[in-house]
Amino acid sequence: MIFDRPVQESWGYGISVAQMLELPELAGTTCVAGAAGLRRRIERLNVMEVPDIGPWMREQELLLTTGYPLREDPEQLVDLVVELDERGAAGLGIKLGRYVDELPASVLAEAERRSFPVLTLPDLGFDDVLSVVLSEVLNRQSVLLARSEHLHHELLQRITAGEGLAEVADHVSRLVGARVLVTTADGRVLVETDRTEPGRAAHGPEGIGEDDGLERDPTGRVRVETLAYGFSDGPPQRIVVPVVAGRQDHGRLVATATRRTLEPADEHALRRAATVMALSITKQRELAAVESKYEGDFLRDVLAGRAGDPEEVVAHAAMLGWRFGQPAVVLVAQHDDPPPPFRPAAGAAPPQDRFFAAWRSVVRSADPGAAVVSLGGEVVVVLGIDPGRGGDVRDLVRPFVTRVAGDGGGGRRTFCTGLSRVFTDVGHLPAAYEQARSAVRVGRWLQGPGAVVEFDSLGIHRLLSLVSDPGELAGFVADTLGELASDDAESEDLRTTLQALLDHNLNVAETARHLLFHYNTLRYRITKLERMIGPFTTDAHLRLNIAVALQALSLRSVSEVLPQRVPVARSAQRGSGDAGRSR
Fold first, then answer.
1. In this predicted model, what pLDDT tens digit does every residue of 304-334 receive, in sequence order?
2. What is the pLDDT of residues 26-55, one digit of tens each?
3. From CA 199, how far away is CA 197, in angstroms rounded?
4. What is the C-alpha to C-alpha distance for residues 221 and 511, in angstroms, rounded to an integer?
5. Quick check: 416 and 453 in contact, CB under 8 A?
6. Which helix H or strand E contains 517, and what residues bound it?
7. Residues 216, 220, 225, 231, CA torsion sign
8. Residues 6+ apart with CB under 8 A from 291
9. Of which family is this protein a member (predicted)?
């Protein structure tokens, strides 16, 4: 069996200069300079017949010579060494004694400085050297191709037998002798073989090693944009290949050396493995799509009250792996801006699919019993809550939001997150869903993109958000506050004073202490405020309008429209206040 060969053996395209020196047929070949470069690979050989051989040399080629073209001036070998090294040649083999008796010290010094191997050959014909080395190269390449074919065939058998991505990665890790990591196209870790024992698969970002040299952001996402495809000699040694099926970019396969030295030729086997992994990911996605549609239909029926009585809903949810018979909250996440046109040819999944996949991965890794469903343009999560936990529910979900947002896998588009009240009866789930949606809508108005809002924190903003036209609210603010609605520093300072007075029920002494004002200073400010907006200290209706207007002014959508409005005249404001007082 091909894989019965010890995994410690170093198999690569061609052979290294060091391996050439070990061939029995070439006994007597000696490295006289540049021994630090013995790992250079030999894939082909050439014989020097003319002095200007350099332009005909290629990378990983060993040049053989008797020194005849340079016999008149052996010092020219220095220039030859320089040119060969710059062209990526594997080394220089020279047969001494016929035309060049010994190598000049300058040649040896330059080769040593460049770590460029210079070999002295025994009394063998160049045809014998060519035959021996090329035969070894071809033999090794045939073994490598056979190994790759065997790996590809075995992995396909495992996929057809029902094994998943983790099992495939585990098998690749054991056969290649490296730690294997598979990520999505944006760097989220799908599976990683155990960093302490290659060959053991670990799902998700838990236990990710810090010693593999990969750049990761705080969420655990691998910065795949910093990885170059192909072989990297490290340290650590690494091979990165794309996981692609057709035009669909599924991610990256990263192999990091552990039990053996990786070779550039291992990339061929890993590319074959990546093809099989793409099939596994495609299979998993298709199954997940069917499962997601079924789960979405069920949750949609639950929210519409068509799924039966609570006992039936809990039982059906348990079949899906959801735990509905416990205290829970509903979380709704929606992108803030309209989705850009999706072009399938770009090779990426639709933004909403990536958004849902990110939420599903993040939430399920923390709570396998949570329901995570994509409904239209939003992601809905039913998350179990520990009855004994204290604190703000938002503290529970903020880590989820952080991991999904931006580099965490949800894409670069911002999104708002709304949370319902905690409910204990599954029959209250539809109402909790509407609460979470309201929290998203109001949070976007109040805080702008990226808001995380709990329904119980909305207060009067719940009602204000029902006004569909921000211009109408802006008009109400301008009519009520007049020039006090301006965005200059003085108006903002006066609004702070006004809000403090309302918060302290117009108690001048308490408000002054709160604002650290002198009592008379606050009395002066009250007089100034009443000249601007009317007698709010004696008119309860006016105070109500002012309180609502101040809250409306905090809405981001209103503040964007308000600068376009022209505040009403002060006299009109005072008249409005007088009318309220006469009533």
1. 888 888 888 889 888 888 988 889 999 999 8
2. 888 999 999 999 988 888 888 887 877 878
3. 6
4. 50
5. yes
6. none
7. positive
8. none
9. Belongs to the CdaR family.
